[in-house]
Amino acid sequence: MAQPQATAVQHLPPEIVLAIVKAALEGLEYVRLLPWRRYNDEIRPQLNRLRRISRHWNNVITGCPTLWKDILLNLRRRDTTLALEAEYHRFRLCVERCNDLPRNLHLVSPGVQEGTVDYGSGSSVESISDTEDESDGDSEGSSVSDNLGYIERRGLASLILSFAKWGHIHVVLENYVTFAWDILCRQSYPHKTWEWLEVLTLESEEMIDIPESGRIHCSDIILVAENFPALRQVALNLTQYSVEPWNFLWGQLTKLTLENFVDRFRTYLNILGQCRVLEEFHLTVGEAYELWNEEPIVKPSPLAITLPYLRNLSLKIEVSSDIVGEFINRLTLPALERFILAYRQSSRRHRNDQDPFISPLLDLVRRSRCSLLHLSLESFLEVDEALFSQLLVSSPSLQCLLFAGVRTSLHFLDSISPISLPTFQRIEITNRGCDPDEEVINRFAKWANCWVKGAAPCISM
């Protein structure tokens, strides 16, 4: 009985085979958790095991472009010619199996530090999975050095640029930012490499010593609009670099994320002033920021920025709170629906330990006349209860409030409980650095259950 069953499995209809493959991939824990984990190295072995069931299964799986459109090229610890040839070969196979579908690339470690390169003398791949063919590799290309001593892995840039129809690109640069310049800043591309590109993510995973200048210098990254007509989302996380001289076609973006640059807030305002159609903006300013060199934003005249389509604004800040408040005061956001502010620098308290963000946020809501739906505030400072109440009164459409402050008092709860918010669905209040107060918890539960309709309010000490 075993043999007929095995034969039946080998000859299942293509749609059944693909359903089984989909279920097998979704069963991988890391694939479900994070979007980029689709590139996890578990996927390739799983696909290859399924392909070995029979020639029919192999033909169905390799002939399904959607299974191969997410391409991982992980070159970390791949420093020899032999290892590069194997990875480049698998890369080409995946691209070819995509047919005409837009494809996504997750590239890890495009450069290697000088002094650690070991280009072997071998010119062929000696051992590859029995489901993959051998390849001559791609050993051509230049080795361009940057100021951190990185050089390009041989032939990598030309390999990527030899294909078109990239939809999403995510590069973990590991501080080899020059590689981004190499692949993005050409005047023209023979195959229109980036014509389909919608999402571009560049990040550096490593923290390095800050140079005397306070920033790391890199060639200006200027994108040519004709080469990136479909680009709409850019995410840059490049610790200790300056975004000021770069241009990622800000004017056509709908979503922009900037993390861990050393620029002053005036630079971010200048960029936002070019973002005519921006819908989401996420800004993280961390320890690499040069607090002691900060200059006033208003120099010599005020910058007033109106972003008519911005719905989602997120600020995660570890620098002077006064500067952040001034930054907020320059914005008018009539379409704002979701605002997130996390101020996590507890060691640099504002004068009088009062949270300085409520007042500019209140002014922003009133000035913009927006219909705020989601408000998330996290600070190690005490909230001005009167201003916070005014903020809630000015936000009658609010559906979700997540508030994490230094303490929650009975007076604070009493100040906001009479406010009418008919659309409220969720409220969560968290204390920072205080012992639980049973009376506060009981009072919160009593009025919140009446205030929030159809949802479970939460208070955490």
Total helical elements? 14
Shape: globular
Order of strands in the sheet with the most strands?
1-2-5-6-7-8-9-11-13-14-15-16-17
| Largest sheet, strands/sense/barrel | 13 strands, parallel
Helix % is 25-40%
Beta content comes to: 15-25%
Give the averaged pLDDT, no decimals.
76
Distance from first to last alpha carbon: 63 Å
Helix/strand class: alpha/beta
Number of strands: 17
What integer value in Å does the Rg equal?
A: 27 Å
Poorly predicted regions are 29-40, 119-146, 346-352
Short description:
This is F-box domain-containing protein. With 461 residues, the chain is an alpha/beta fold.
Give the topology.
Layout: H1 2-10, H2 14-26, H3 29-33, H4 43-51, H5 55-62, E1 70-74, H6 81-97, E2 103-108, E3 111-113, E4 150-152, H7 156-161, E5 166-172, H8 178-184, E6 199-203, E7 233-237, E8 255-259, H9 265-272, E9 280-285, E10 305-306, E11 312-317, H10 321-329, E12 331-332, E13 338-343, H11 358-368, E14 374-379, H12 385-393, E15 400-405, H13 410-416, E16 426-431, H14 438-451, E17 458-460
Parallel strand pairs: 1-2, 2-5, 5-6, 6-7, 7-8, 8-9, 9-11, 10-12, 11-13, 13-14, 14-15, 15-16, 16-17
Antiparallel strand pairs: 3-4
Helix pairs in contact: 4-5, 10-11, 11-12, 12-13
What can you tell me about this protein's structure?
Residues 116-144 are annotated as: Disordered. This is F-box domain-containing protein. With 461 residues, this protein is of the alpha/beta class. The chain has a domain at 1-67. The chain is built from 14 helices and 17 strands. The protein has a 13-stranded parallel beta sheet with strand order 1-2-5-6-7-8-9-11-13-14-15-16-17, with helices on one face. Strand 14 (374-379), helix 12 and strand 15 (400-405) form a beta-alpha-beta unit. The model is unreliable at 29-40, 119-146 and 346-352 (pLDDT under 50).
